[in-house]
Write a structure and sequence with these properties.
- The protein has five helices and no strands.
- It is mainly alpha-helical.
- It has two domains: 1-32; 34-109.
């Protein structure tokens, strides 16, 4: 073996090592996403509060939206789509709180 063939093998080896390191770096980025535990628990608490305030009959549109987004958040969380789960949990909390407010307001005014 002459020196030029050794250099070619060294360059190929270095390039292969670079590709492996790049691949591992890109794959580890997905592991850096944090789980939206707080958003999920807040959405759950808001949804349960809306259910207890009987908003399913007093504010059915808002309650259905809250339920839809809550179920989407749970499904996305199970599939490990944490960014989507966080967005859906925030929307579910928003609609749950609105539904609860409308239901309480209607029961107070009756």
């Amino acid at each position: 073996m002459n020196q030029s063939s050794i250099m070619v093998k060294g360059a190929k080896s270095a390039f292969f090592t670079f590709k492996i390191i790049l691949l591992l770096t890109l794959l580890s980025c997905g592991l850096a996403t944090t789980r939206p535990k707080m958003e999920m628990s807040m959405a759950q608490a808001a949804f349960i509060a809306a259910k207890r305030s009987k908003s399913m009959t007093l504010a059915p549109g808002l309650y259905r939206k809250a339920e839809f987004y809550y179920l989407k958040a749970k499904s996305s969380y199970r599939r490990k789509y944490f960014n989507k789960a966080k967005q859906y949990a925030i929307l579910s909390k928003k609609f749950s709180e609105r539904a609860e407010f409308v239901a309480i307001k209607k029961t107070t005014l009756e």
